[in-house]
């Protein structure tokens, strides 16, 4: 399929990794090599540089869906216990205040509550994966919060409201983790993470796109669901990515079965790629 400037961009749900991992290669070795390679391949799949990124991060929740509107967002070092130099890193992508207003209007047009935050900075759910996707930070980025309560149906509806942005050259990325239980991490979590990941792949890739939203709305009934996600903030960005590409094919674009010693984890694209 040949990309044109008018073709619709896909959406993504990515596993964003832990803390400031792109700046810790000396300390972590090759632990993130496969995730980094998958993230770095996204521009090739897309086939062109988007006008902007809309990033829905697991690390921001508000009473209403809130859009970042700073023209130059600062950094939020929302992690602890990492080396001192990781509290000085920068990802200096420009913001996009006019796009923020467009996003707010789309959300309100769907009957959902929306707000603007002109001060909010980039959290690590945004800047860490983006350091691999667009390391030169040249693509403007706007973050969008989750809504407190983490209702999956409401976040699917949010994705539907945002779908027109795909025809406006805005790349929608949901940033979380397909498995997020920090109390059960490593080799002992292999079986439960695999059970949930198998279900997730069946729901969003193998299953019919028309049934995907219903499957995800009932995600808590999936095998090992509440072990994989004791609190679902790292899964809910998936709902936004799916809602914005509800009837389109799902593709698993990243998969490991021994991440951090034993976790089964995945990332997904929704909609066709320009290249592969």
From TrEMBL:
Its EC number is 1.13.-.-. It comes from the Bacteria. Keywords: Dioxygenase, Metal-binding, Oxidoreductase, Zinc. Its cofactor is Zn(2+). Residues 47-249 form the Extradiol ring-cleavage dioxygenase class III enzyme subunit B domain. InterPro entries: Extradiol_dOase_DODA (IPR014436), Xdiol_dOase_suB (IPR004183). Gene3D superfamilies: LigB-like. GO terms for molecular function: dioxygenase activity. This is Class III extradiol ring-cleavage dioxygenase.
